[in-house]
Amino acid sequence: MLITGILITIVAIFMVLVPQFFMRLKSPRIPDKLLKNPKMKVVLRVWGGIFVIVGILLIVFSII
To answer: What is the dihedral of CA 28, 29, 34, 35, to 10 degrees?
Structure first.
């Protein structure tokens, strides 16, 4: 559970910092109209923030 928490936290931090990378992944395909929408970056950053919290909770619970 510790390793999973660390991996989730690392990926989520990158999702918060560099949402453009995750928007350009091929699967699932995001239409070009959504890629140009600035709200999409905000949505990815919110999801990244949620997963950062989940990853930290997994790390904490595995240590306790």
So the answer is: 100
Q: What pLDDT is recorded for position 56?
A: 92
Judge whether 11 and 51 are in contact, CB under 8 Å.
yes
Q: On the CB side of 24, how many CA atoms lie within 13 Å of its CA?
A: 4
**What are the pLDDT digits (tens) for 18-27?**
888 877 776 6
Element (H, E) at 60: helix 38-63
Q: Which pair of structure tokens corresponds to residue 17?
A: 């910092």
Q: How far apart are CA 16 and CA 35, in angstroms?
A: 16
